[in-house]
Description:
The chain is an alpha/beta fold. It is built from twelve helices and 17 strands. The chain has helices at about 10-25, 65-70, 100-105, 110-120, 130-155, 195-200, 235, 280-285, 315-325, 335-340, 345-360, 365-370, and strands at about 1-5, 30, 45, 50-55, 60, 75-80, 85-90, 90-95, 185-190, 210, 225-230, 245-255, 265-270, 280, 295-300, 310, 330-335. Strands 8-7-13-14-15-12-16 form a seven-stranded mixed sheet. Strands 10-2-1-11-17 form a five-stranded parallel sheet, covered by helices on one side. Helix 1 (about 10-25) packs parallel to helix 11 (about 345-360) and helix 4 packs across helix 5. The chain is globular, with a radius of gyration of 22 Å.
Amino acid sequence: MFDYLIVGAGFAGSVLAERLANGSNKKVLICDKRPHIAGNAYDFYNDAGILIHKYGPHIFHTNSKEVFDYLSNFTDWREYQHRVLACVDGMQLPIPINLDTINKLYGLNLTAFEVEDFFAKIAEPIENIRTSEDVVVSKVGRELYQKFFRNYTRKQWGLDPSELDASVTARVPTRTNRDDRYFTDTYQAMPKYGFTRMFEKILDSPNIKIMLNCDYQEIVREIPFKKMIYTGPVDSFFNYVYGKLPYRSLEFKHETHDMEQFQAAPVVNYPNEQAYTRITEFKYLTGQEHKKTSIVYEFPQAEGDPYYPIPRKENAEIYAKYKALADAREDVHFVGRLATYKYYNMDQIVAQSLTEYSKIIGLKRKEASVYVAPKDKIIIPVSIKQPLNLNVPAPKTNGNGKNVVNNLG
């Protein structure tokens, strides 16, 4: 008898599995439809020997010391600050829009004080901010909105920004200085040996059994358990009784090139002419040295694996009906992006999962997130503020997570 059946081996399912197994000595079975752990953060070494992210770039960043310290029990870190360029008017310009973006785009030589006045003059005051278009136009005006945001958003979401909730672009910053970092979080780093290796360590417990290539519906009546933690699509769980919740999906086109560097930045956005939205070059993210390089193109699409809940009022109303059903199920905990129909960054999923665990055991989250290694292990947490531990042995797998797959016997 398992104490918990956890559906999904991404961040939400894996963090809760670890906490229940090591924090509460519970017997956990975690299953996933995919042939690997780590969810969308899954990375692996391709045929050329380059570490790539199968489902597009995943960049870890957080302002939460608690989340960072928790994950540090399972990985050393490589400090990394993400940078993005946008291809506009035949130039590759820093995004988010900053002082250099404006000066290069218009051939100006403004100072930080002058660019602040520049933004103030071109911004269009909008009294009632309702849509994504309103958010951007009120900050940077109509012309920059057209050049950098409108077409990118239409490709990404299949909708015009005027049809999307303000939350989609509400966090888009503009800067009056030359800071070209994409994020400004306190902690910005990548797992030293990749995300999959980190997940292997998270799930490495005698109390955790793993089944891959497994739809939970195939085992839910065959294997006894007390409670379920569900991280899949909430509409699917309830057999689409209120209809399907809309998502945007992505198609990934991976390529390897016989050159050391393909582009001038880790990610280059293509907001206008091309069908794809961006190209990522993985060696920037991982710090790997290799004579070849691997990239991925992203093509947004309507059908496929669900990635992005579409933030529109009518969709929120449908989800509210599913949430009422979920709240009524005392035997099932619904956690994560798909189960709560909301886009979260990776650190937010970890925080949500730690919060859910604290509710399950009746402790404050800070107390619930304290990691105690199994008796046969000694794991020393590391901090990004300290020198990286270069004596950690290199991974013995190729990043496919196979060494954590256990039989149920």
